[in-house]
Amino acid sequence: MKGEVKMKSKMKWVGLIGIVLSAFSIFIHFLLARFTELGVSDYQSSITIFSWRPIFDKPDFPTNSASYRRLWGPVKRLESLYPDSNPRGDYSDPGSQTNGFIFVRIQGGFHEIRNSICDVVAISRLLNATLAMPEIQSTTSSKGISSQFKSFAYLYNEDQFIFSLAKDVKVVRTLPKYLKGARRKKEIPVFKVPHSASPFYYLRHVLPVLKKHSVVELVVSNGGCLQAILPPYFEEYQRLRCRVSFHALQFRQEVQELSAKILQRLRAPSRPFIAFDPGMTRESLAYHGCAELFQDVHTELIQHKRSWMIKRGIVKGKLSVNSAEARLNGSCPLMPEEIGILLRAYGYSKDAIIYVSGGEVFGGQRTLIPLHAMFDNVVDRTSLSTPWEMIKIYGKEVNLVNPPPGPPPFEEVKKLAAWKNAGPRPRPLPPPPARPKSYNIEGWWGWVAESDNEPDSTVMELRTNAHKLLWEAIDYLICVEADVFIPGFDRDGKGHSNFASLVMGHRLYQSAASKTFRPDRKEAAKLVDEIRDHMYQANRTWLKSVRRHLRKTLLDGIIEASSKSKPLSFLSHPVPECSCSRHDTSFEASKNSSSKLSSQVSTTLGVTHQCPAWMDTGPISQLKDKENEDDGDEDDSLSGLFFRQSGGNNEGDGDVNAKEENQFEDQEELEGGEK
Ligand SMILES: *[C@@H]1O[C@H](CO)[C@@H](O)[C@H](O)[C@H]1NC(C)=O
Ligand SMILES: *[C@@H]1O[C@H](CO)[C@@H](O)[C@H](O)[C@H]1NC(C)=O
Ligand SMILES: *[C@@H]1O[C@H](CO)[C@@H](O)[C@H](O)[C@H]1NC(C)=O
Ligand SMILES: *[C@@H]1O[C@H](CO)[C@@H](O)[C@H](O)[C@H]1NC(C)=O
């Protein structure tokens, strides 16, 4: 008996030890698994992080095929264009004596701030004045914003700004004490400067006052305060604008670092990417009368904005506009769906990476659904960063006691009353009452920073507006670096040039040859409408005309921009003032090479300035064999492939598509090689 009990207790012990051991081993196992997982995810963190899981049809990505060059390669004819914004004639340092201080308050969004800063620097130089660090108003000086970064420094790097402009204008961080006091007492003369004032406005009206009081305050509120196109003898001021925009205005370090990280994640799969800026802000849609391209509540919200703008004299037209007509004559943004169709038709495969930029995409995710359906890898800032990384760049912000969850529902009712009184107009049914506006609030896309009564924005909205500046800063850097850029629209809510125009200007300056499509919206709308009803049977003729059109815009779009965009904003087209052309002498002998073609382009753009000798680091890439790629008749290789699946048969098209695209590209490659 006793022995049995002993035996039993022994067994118990053994069992217990066994259990403990296995528990321990499981624990270790988990620990190890945890660690290895961590290790692995760290190792791969640059690839499968966040909400983006890259999907590629083919593991390899040949970069030397003709189709690669057609889709991603540089535009050869623009390869001789280089950035050169250094002064070209006699250019003196800012003299020791100054006519006084210029203090600037800037109001507006990202692109308006950037334009304005360049203008006020040019004006300071023109008036021989000392510039106090511009103050960015309302967006960055409210109490909801981190006090860590003040005004200009919220977005840009002050030291870099001062240092980089040392040879152009004197810049001080703040006004001297006695002037600050005077400013507080409102004893400083203030000019609300017009949007595109001529230099003579400043010489005639501002300079005498500046000399008398030795300080003036300028209020810039419409995204610029100096004419875009200046008389020829002011050319150095244009180059100064370029130096400010492309060299002196660097984002704050934290913003630069996060952008670099995002860019690195975007490039982690070692594939090129397209940046797409939809430019669909509620204001620009309202200004251009594009309300009816949307439905229901969106239409009404745009119309509400438009009536608000008409009341304030921002919009001169009627409240109701035939949006379909406006779209057909190119006054409305191209929708993400239309951009998607054009890109697919041009030949970008379903797995191409598309970065969607923009602080606001009106209509929210809903308008992006078709783009997501056409491309697997549609990403944006939020899918390539963590909320924590974003919060870090905002700086320390006080907790808002009760962040309002969105406009209260009764506002909706008020609006409806206003619409009812707005006069007859064919309008869709009012939104169903059971669904309050909040269903549109979808992360950053949807209803961010919207307020119907502009003056009394809530603290939360002001804060979001400030954050939007940082988001756009990140998007700006990524769009400038992108292998391919395509804008949906190039006008803002005041009819001026927008964010995308600035990006295109920057790309033209910095890397003229990088691919920037500038679709002619009129033409594009027509092309898309042609196959709207039978998209899956797009024929060769149609595909060819899309390709021809898009390729044409690579060059002709630039030439057109010099007559259409430049008068609105110099920075959207800083050519020829800020560029130089590099002719390769080794090509002079064989006159038939494309160096002749590229010099033709330079001439058309008016770039006559030869690049300084130090830029001649080597011959321009050998163009001989490739030159026809830009003239491109290789379209013959089209095999009528586009969205092949017929009708509702969406399943399993991936496989077929991949195969067919493969075939398609092989064919193209073959033909490219034959030439
Ligand atoms: C600014 O200074 C330059 C040289 O120092 C002088 O030629 C020019 O007339 C001055 N302009 C004004 C507006 O004072
Ligand atoms: C569109 O048409 C209107 C008149 O219907 C015209 O005033 C406007 O200039 C046109 N816009 C463009 C971009 O052609
Ligand atoms: C090709 O498609 C376009 C637009 O769908 C149509 O207008 C044209 O007639 C078609 N051409 C041929 C040859 O089928
Ligand atoms: C250049 O083209 C012309 C005809 O346009 C031809 O006569 C000439 O031989 C070509 N020169 C060279 C170097 O290819």
TrEMBL record:
| Bias kind Acidic residues: ranges | 628-637, 663-675
- What's an example of a GO molecular-function annotation for this chain? glycosyltransferase activity
Query: Pathway, according to UniProt?
Result: Glycan metabolism
One GO cellular component term:
endosome
Keyword line: Carbohydrate metabolism, Fucose metabolism, Glycoprotein, Glycosyltransferase, Membrane, Signal-anchor, Transferase, Transmembrane, Transmembrane helix
| InterPro entries cross-referenced by the UniProt entry | FucosylTrfase_pln, GDP-Fuc_O-FucTrfase
Q: Where in the cell is it found?
A: Membrane
- Region named Disordered: 610-675
Lipid bilayer topology: Single-pass type II membrane protein
Membrane spanning residue stretches: 12-32
GO BP annotations, alphabetical order: fucose metabolic process
- Which family does the entry's similarity section mention? Belongs to the glycosyltransferase GT106 family.
Q: What is this protein called?
A: O-fucosyltransferase family protein
**Organism listed in the record:** Cicer arietinum
